[in-house]
Specification:
An 8-stranded mixed β-sheet has the order 3-2-1-4-5-6-7-8, with helices on both faces. The protein has helices at residues 15-27, 39-51, 66-80, 102-124, 140-147, 151-158, 164-179, 192-214, 243-246, 248-254, and strands spanning 6-9, 31-36, 57-60, 83-88, 128-137, 221-226, 267-269, 272-274. The chain has a single domain, classed as NAD(P)-binding Rossmann-like Domain (Rossmann fold, 3-Layer(aba) Sandwich), CATH 3.40.50.720. It contains 10 helices and 8 strands. With 276 residues, it is of the alpha/beta class. Helix 3 (66-80) runs parallel beside helix 4. It is globular and about 55 Å long. It binds NADP nicotinamide-adenine-dinucleotide phosphate (NAP). NADP nicotinamide-adenine-dinucleotide phosphate binds at residues 10-11, 13-17, 36-38, 41, 61-64, 89-93, 112, 116, 137, 139, 226-227, 229-230, 232-235, 239.
Length: 276
């Protein structure tokens, strides 16, 4: 088994994830795994970094596929006895003018952004070594969508006692409500991406609390963040930040020094803790 530190970035064949891997290759003292659901696209991305003189390793990972997540888990367990840095970056968004029915957009978006990210956490968090870092890439849209929720929902999503099961129930209810076209009446905002990212931010707050309760002595720091508005296939060419600039906050959180006791359980953008 290797004692080399190891970092894993989900959805990193392009966009912000690719830029996070690039930065980690330069700054992380260990093995850096670029992961992708499509092996061809992943290996092309590794080759592109190779041309820049950077050495990333590759492992397949489709966060929608539990078998794929578990294959990565078993690989990390066997080869490294765990992992040191996990960046949950993979995500999807329908374009604003997409005509796919809203209920379908809700189900598909939450499947990857919330349930997929949660499944990766369920399988990989127990493997994170002491002093490890976990970064869940959420979005400022989670904050604005929270503002668009009913008072009752806002209270639940800001609660310091909400459980993961309760959060899953709420995310499932959103999907069901969209199918019955009652989501607005039930206090939800009209954004599937926004609700999926509320899920990611609240999940991060819950996970950080669980680490405090169950693994206090392990000094693991776990946060959600927004990369900013970044020029990628998702956000388009008009966005203000380059992918390398978008990677800055996630990489800052992934490389917090071992004597840092925070941020932890926070929502961070531009390297600054934001009020949730
Ligand atoms: P992007 O260019 O569309 O890249 C998304 C990445 O996620 C791609 O590598 C994609 O792989 C991967 N992915 C999608 N579904 C996956 C799955 N089921 N399993 C594994 N990988 C999957 O988007 P981006 O702008 O870099 O976004 C990265 C993250 O930042 C997302 O979580 C996004 O919500 C968040 N974010 C972005 C912005 C922005 O302005 N760009 C702002 C706030 C937050 P494929 O190539 O195979 O599709």
């Amino acid at each position: 088994m290797s004692n080399v530190p190891v970092a894993v970035v989900t959805g990193s064949n392009k966009g912000i994830g690719f830029a996070i891997v690039r930065a980690l290759c330069k700054q992380f003292p260990g093995d850096v795994y670029l992961t992708a659901r499509d092996t061809g696209r992943g290996q092309e991305a590794v080759a592109k970094l190779q041309e820049e003189g950077l050495h990333a390793l590759f492992h397949q990972l489709d966060i929608d596929d539990l078998q794929s997540i578990r294959a990565l888990r078993d690989f990390l367990k066997e080869k490294y006895g765990g992992l040191n840095v996990l960046v949950n970056n993979a995500g999807i968004a329908f374009k604003v003018h997409d005509t796919t029915p809203f209920a379908v957009q809700a189900e598909v978006t939450l499947k990857t952004n919330f349930f997929g990210t949660r499944n990766v956490c369920t399988e990989l968090l127990p493997l994170v070594k002491p002093y490890g870092k976990v970064v869940n890439v959420s979005s400022m849209v989670s904050s604005s969508a929270l503002g668009g929720c009913s008072k009752e929902l806002q209270q639940k999503f800001r609660s310091n006692t909400i459980t993961e099961d309760e959060l899953v129930e709420l995310m499932t209810k959103f999907i069901q409500d969209t199918k019955k076209s009652v989501h607005e009446k039930e206090g939800w905002p009209n954004t599937a991406y926004g609700v999926s990212k509320i899920g990611v931010t609240v999940l991060s707050r819950i996970q950080a609390r669980m680490l405090n309760e169950k693994r206090k002595g392990d000094h693991i720091l776990l946060n959600a963040c927004c990369p900013g508005w970044v020029r990628t296939d998702m956000a388009g060419p008009k966005a203000t930040k380059s992918p390398d600039e978008g990677a800055e906050t996630p990489v800052y959180l992934a490389l917090l020094p071992s004597d840092a006791d925070g941020p932890h359980g926070q929502f961070v953008s531009d390297k600054t803790v934001r009020t949730w």
